[in-house]
Design goal:
Blueprint lengths: L6 H33 L7 H12 L7 E2 L2 E2 L9 H4 L4 H9 L19 H15 L14
Antiparallel strand pairs: 1-2
Helix pairs in contact: 2-5, 4-5
Length: 145
């Protein structure tokens, strides 16, 4: 390139690049909005599921667990825990309820939160709801989470 780089050339590159990336943003936004209805799970969203989500946040469950790949990696992924427990909310409730008061000495374990039956049902409903979310690439990749 033997010619000199001019202000006019710089301006053209700036405006051309801006137009290109703006059009790319519009195309990706359109693609996202057309894909979302296929992955929507709002028809299963109930008051109980919302209460379970609130308890999930209040007790900082994501501080130990991952949920659909987001969160800490201290404890198992819970995006498919409903399927792991045989599609049973009762099994999830029983597992949470059976946690020892002070944990298991010498190993990491989930604490006992002393939830009442309504709270246990709400958390189980929330985990069932999460397991029914249609994720990209079928996350989590295996049954164990």
């Amino acid at each position: 390139m033997s010619e000199k780089f001019t202000k006019s050339m710089a301006r053209n590159i700036y405006y051309g690049g801006s137009a290109f990336f703006f059009l790319l943003l519009l195309a990706l936004t359109f693609d996202t909005h057309t894909a979302l209805p296929d992955r929507d799970n709002r028809q299963n969203l109930t008051e109980q599921v919302a209460m379970g989500k609130m308890l999930w946040e209040k007790n900082d469950c994501i501080g130990c667990h991952t949920l659909l790949g987001e969160g800490a990696y201290f404890a198992p992924e819970l995006g498919n825990v409903y399927k792991r427990f045989g599609n049973s909310t009762e099994a999830i409730m029983g597992f949470i309820k059976s946690r020892p008061k002070d944990g298991i000495p010498g190993r990491r374990s989930m604490p006992q939160f002393n939830f009442n039956d309504d709270e246990l049902a709400a958390i189980a409903a929330f985990l069932k709801y999460v397991s029914e979310v249609k994720t990209a690439n079928d996350w989590p990749p295996n049954v164990q989470g």
